[in-house]
Amino acid sequence: MCQYTPPYNDSAYFLLQLIYQTFVFISRSSISIGLPALPRELLPLPAILQSFILLTLILESSIGLFGSTSSAVPIVFFLISMEGLCGGSA
Predict the structure, then answer these.
(1) Residue 77 falls in which region: left (phi positive, over 0), alpha (psi -120 to 50) or beta
(2) Range of the domain at 79
């Protein structure tokens, strides 16, 4: 039986939290630098995108959707940053 070892350690989780919080901050402060808020008809879009990201990350953690660790890490970092942007803009 092959034992699974997770590709991330504690410092990687700290980095993921830092990336998420940074992008939430950027998203929330975007109005103060002159970017307009989301129009009312696009308000469901961040929640839909967050659901897609959640399903993608569930598949990655359960079956290794992105393949090797070296290719999965940048993709997961990108998805976490998009999650932060969606969370901040909602």
Answers:
(1) alpha
(2) 44-62+71-90
